[in-house]
Every structure is written in C-alpha cells, then in structure tokens.
Design brief:
Length: 313
C-alpha cells in the first residue's frame, strides 16, 4: 500500500523494494511475497530510467521465482507484468551485465505456459533475437535467451511464424559459437527443435542445420538431454526433407548413423534418449535410398538391442 500510494516517488519505490527484499530469507513471508510481483514490476516500469531500481527489483523477483520453482510452483505472471519486463528489456538493451540477470529472470518466468504465452503476446521474441545478435559471446545470455525461445516456440500458437523463422539463423549462430559449452549447446538444440517442429526452416537450412546438430552431439556426447533434444530436432528436419536425411548419412565428419549407435551405447539406460533415437531412425527409413545404407550399417542389430532393453515401452 505504501508503494502504491506513491508510484511517482522513486525513493519510496526503492525503499519499498529493499524492505520487501529483507523478507526473502523468512520462509513464512514467502506466500505474501508472491503477491508482490506486480507491484515490483510496476515500480520498475514507472522508474525505468533508474538502473539501481531495475537491478534491485530484478534481484528480488529472481529470489521470489527461485523459491517458487524450488517448491514446485509455476508463477503465471499476467500480461501487464510481461509488458513491464519488456519495457525494461528495451530500455536497458545495451547493459550486458544487467541484461544477463534480466534474461535469467525471463527464462524462469517462461517456465509457466501462461507466462510464456503472455511474453509472446507482448512481442518479446524480436527483442530476444536482437539481444542474442549483440551479445553472442555471452554464454549466460545465450543460454537464457534460447531457453525462453524454446518455451515461446514450443507453444501451439503459430501467430509468430515470420518472427520464429527469423530466429533460425540466430539460434544456429549461438550453437555454432558455443558448441563446446554443453549447457548453452543444449539450450540452443532445444530451441532449434521447437523451430523445426513449427516448420520455420527453409530448404537451404536443412543441410547446414543437420550438420550443426551432429557437431553438437559429437562435442557433448555425455549430455543426455542434449542428445535427446538434438535427435528430436534432427527427426523434425528429416520429416521435412530428404536432404536432412542424406546430410546425416553423408556428413563430412563421419557417418551420422555410426554416431547414433555410439550415442545409444553411451546412454543405453536412458529411455528418453532411446525414444528420440528411434523416432529419428523411423523418420530416416521413410526414404528408400537412405534405408539401404542403414541396412548396410547393421542398424537392425541396434534396434534389436533397444527392443530388448525397453521391452515394455
């Protein structure tokens, strides 16, 4: 009430946020802090020029959201909160350090389907792409932005088809630049999978994207989630074009089929990985020319192994 009575006075908002932050460590205060997210974001929007207030507000929201996620709660922030966060992104789009924190916040917010939909509605995707282009070197920003992209692109809505298509080269650039950083590569593979599911890639994208995804699998063989999402992305590409299937087969760095076999043997106890690999192989065998090559590489032996390992799946 104290904050709401004096929206225009920056000092009141700053003191209010600091005072609310003092309750963060008190578990019994958590249910009350949950009701304050709108007040905090509105204070940030009203005093958008004050970087100090933005940082304090963002830090507090991160604390509240972290506690919510720890307790298995999804915070479905409404459209007005999403709009406030977008204003903050636009105003401070040059401040790398603050954006790093803000993108982490957006990633946590987008874990909720409702909040992700609200972020999509207020038009945050072009801003995310602009941030990625500007800070392609920053692994923390790349990880967060790709995770947000995945959350937004995976929704059923196709309203942003043109915008999502423009995300393909940027997401590919993130993966290319961070191939050896497993965390970022995993996030970029997930985003590419969502974009491929929506049919956002053009004919000229299939071959280079398939090669890039194979590189990600080669570089990070131990990361089960990356392997799973990378294979699902490849399956989506193969479903769209035989070019992608041939790219897997004839990859200049070695047979993609051999790579698939190696990945399965590394993660033979992971049902998610096995399922993604089977889905990919099922898409590949739709093309007769490719299927003959798979036979020569004894893929039936691998399929039999998988069937024995997961007889009830």
């Amino acid at each position: 009430e104290f904050m709401q009575a004096s929206w225009d006075i920056e000092e009141v908002q700053a003191k209010g946020i600091k005072h609310l932050a003092s309750f963060v460590k008190d578990r019994s205060a958590f249910p009350y802090l949950l009701t304050c997210t709108e007040v905090i974001t509105l204070a940030m929007k009203t005093h958008i020029d004050s970087l100090d207030l933005q940082v304090e507000g963002c830090t507090l929201l991160l604390e509240i959201l972290s506690q919510a996620l720890e307790q298995g709660m999804m915070m479905a922030l409404d459209e007005s909160v999403a709009s406030c966060l977008l204003h903050t992104v636009r105003k401070h789009s040059e401040n790398e350090e603050f954006l790093s924190m803000l993108c982490t916040l957006l990633m946590m917010v987008s874990a909720s389907e409702v909040a992700a939909e609200n972020l999509r509605k207020v038009g945050i995707i072009p801003d995310l792409l602009s941030i990625l282009r500007r800070f392609l070197h920053n692994d923390k920003i790349c990880f967060s932005c790709c995770a947000v992209l995945w959350s937004l692109a995976v929704s059923e809505s196709n309203a942003d088809q043109a915008v999502l298509e423009s995300a393909v080269p940027v997401t590919s650039a993130v993966l290319q630049n961070h191939l050896q950083n497993g965390v970022v590569a995993e996030s970029a593979c997930s985003a590419l999978w969502a974009l491929a599911l929506h049919g956002c890639l053009s004919d000229s994208d299939y071959e280079p994207t398939a090669a890039l995804l194979l590189d990600a699998l080669r570089m990070n063989p131990e990361r089960a989630v990356l392997v799973k999402n990378g294979c699902l992305a490849l399956a989506s590409l193969v479903r769209l074009s035989e070019t992608a299937a041939l790219a897997i087969l004839l990859d200049s760095k070695g047979s993609g089929i051999e790579l698939i076999k190696d990945e399965y043997h590394l993660h033979f106890d992971e049902p998610g990985v096995a399922e993604a690999l089977c889905l990919l192989m099922n898409e590949i065998v739709q093309y007769e020319e490719v299927m003959l090559d798979m036979r020569s590489q004894k893929i039936e032996k691998l399929l039999s192994e998988i069937k024995l390992q997961f007889p009830f799946s």
